Amino acid sequence: MANDDDRLRIMHGGPFYELMTRLGIRKRGWRAFVFAGLCWTIPVLLLLATSGGHGAGLFLHDWGAWAKFLIAPVLLTLAEKPIGFALDECVSILFRIPLVASRSIPDARKALREARSRTTSWKAELVCIAVALAATAFNVATFVGGGAPAWAVSDGSVSITGLWCLAVGNTVYWFLLTRLVWKHAVWWQFLSTVGRCHLRLAVTHPDGHGGLGFLGFYPEGYKLFTLAVSAVFAAGVSHVMQRQTVTPGLFTAVCVAWLIVFAIYYFVPLAGVALQVSRLKRKAVRLSLTKVTDFERLSERATLGENVFADEAEPEVRELQDVKPVYLASMKTSALLINKGNVLSVLVPALLPMLVVGASYLPFSQLGPIVKRLLLL
Questions:
Q1: Which residues of the chain have pLDDT under 70?
Q2: Residues 6+ apart with CB under 8 A from 194
C-alpha cells in the first residue's frame, strides 16, 4: 500500500468534501442514496401527489429521467473511490520503483503537491457550480420553449415536479460530472509534468512500454464514470430514435464517434509520458541498429573468413556483444499505453448503454454485427 507521500488523494478535500462531511454523508454509499432520493424519489412522489399514477408512469417510462436523475448521480458518486484508488496506485508505482530519475524527483514531488492543492481548490468547485447552473439555465429555456417532457408540464406550463428536477436533479448531475472532469484535468496536469521529467525507462521492459505500461490501466477506475455519462448520452440518442428512423449505419457511426470521444478523453493525459516512450524507442533503435550490424558482420567474418559484401574500410573490432534482443525489444516497444490489451475497460462501459438503446429499436440480426465491429472482435 502507498503511504500518504506517494498518493494523490484526488477525491479528498475541498469545499464539497467538507460540506458532505459536515452533513454526515461523506461515505459514498450514503451520499449516493441521498442524491437518488433528492433527484429521483422526490419527483416520483411529487408526481403521484399532483398527477397521480399517469404522471408518475410518464416519468418512469422516460429513459432520460432514469439516466440523469437516478443512474448518473449514483454512479458518479460511487465512482469516486475506484478513480481515487486507481490514480493513487499509479502515483505510488511511479515514486516507489522509482521510475522518476533522481535529478527529477524534486520536480515530480512538486507536481504532486501542486496537484493536491488544485484538487482542493474552492475556485475550481465554484466554476463547477457555475457550469452546473448554466446548464440548468439552458434546460429552463428549453422547457419554457416547449421542449419539456410530458411529465414536467401541467396546464401548459412547467410543473412543480419539472421545476424540482431542473433546480435539483439537473444541477446535481452537472455539478457531479464537472467536478469529476476537473479531477481528471488535475490528473492530466500531473502526468504532463511527469512526462517532462527524466524517467528511468528500459526498452527491454517486458510490458512493451518501457516500464510505463501500468499507466494504461488507470481507466479501469473510471468504469462507473464512463457508464454514468454513457447512460445519459444513450438516453438522448433514444429520444432521437423515438422521433425518427435510425439506420444501422447511422447508429454505428454515432457509437463509433462516442467511443472515439472516450478514447481521446483517457488517452490525452498519457500523451506526455507516451512521448517519453516514443523517444526511448527511437534512441534504442538507432543505437542498437549500429551495434547489431557490426556484430553480425563480425560473426559473418568469423564463420566465412570474409564478409559476403566486403568493405575495404571495415572498422577494427575485437569483440562485440550481441544486442539483437535489445533491437528486437525496441522494435516491439509501443507508445500506445491504451491498446487492445486494456481498451475494453474503456469500450465496454461506454458502449453498453448504447447497446441497450439499440436493442430497443434494431433487431438482433443487425445489432450483433455492429457489436462485433465496435469491440474489434
A1: 1-4, 315-319, 375-377
A2: 94, 100, 108, 111, 272, 273
